[in-house]
Amino acid sequence: MYYSGCCSISAYSSAMGIILQEIILMLVISTGSLSAEGRLFMDVKVGRSAVLPCNWRTILDNLSSDQKPHIEWRTFSETVFERRGEEHYEGEGYEDRVDVPEDKLKKGNCSLVLKEVKAEDAGVYESYLLVNRVKRALSSKRVFIQSVELSVDDSSGVIHFPSPIITFTILTIILLFMQCFIDPL
């Protein structure tokens, strides 16, 4: 049987090589910065609340008595929430929906409470403790605590995956196979 498609065996092998490279890249990037316990994965439905776990005492036993814990929760592109004592910052799009309660933070619990979850909240969240380098110094170092990957399930049954890399890889595979199996006119 003669195949008249656009792709030869060498083109097919080349396409499979590209796919393999994309998968390896996706795996390398998705492992990101992992703690000793690794990244946590959570699923939540749209409209519900999620508590992204975090405990800074696992990283640092105690702060000096005059130092208040300074916690920061980030995605790859933005700061979601920051708290130091009574002062706090809520990132754009997260206003009135995020918190790390001050009383719990003092005891080591830096879990992020995310209310009224939206589909666009899907993503990787990382928590950091900001610690002064030297007593009374203006500069501080950021100490990684935890990484949490949040997947959001909307009521239509569609699960919103956080990683654009996964989406890009799937679309690349589909396009490559379409190119090989659709016979041009």
Helix content: 10-25%
Low-confidence stretches: 23-36
What's the overall average pLDDT, rounded? 76
Largest sheet: 7 strands, mixed
Order of helices and strands: HEEEEEEHEEEEH
Give the CA-CA distance, first to last residue: 20 Å
Tally of DSSP β-strands: 10
Count of DSSP helices? 3
Gyration radius (Cα, Å) is 22 Å
Tell me the overall shape: elongated
Strand portion = 25-35%
- Which structural class best describes the helix and strand composition? alpha+beta
Main location: membrane
Subcellular location: Cell membrane
GO biological process, one term: negative regulation of T cell proliferation
Protein name: Immunoglobulin V-set domain-containing protein
Q: Would you write up a description of this structure?
A:
This protein is of the alpha+beta class and 185 residues long. 25% of the residues lie in helices and 30% in strands. The strands form 2 sheets. Strands 1, 3, 4, 5, 8, 9 and 10 form a 7-stranded mixed sheet that branches. Strands 2-7-6 form a 3-stranded antiparallel sheet, with no helix packed on it. α1 runs antiparallel to α3. The protein starts with 8 loop residues before the first helix and ends with a helix.
Write a concise synopsis of the structure shown.
The chain has helices at 9-31, 102-106, 164-181; strands at residues 40-45, 50-52, 70-74, 79-84, 87-90, 98-99, 112-114, 123-132, 140-153, 159-160.
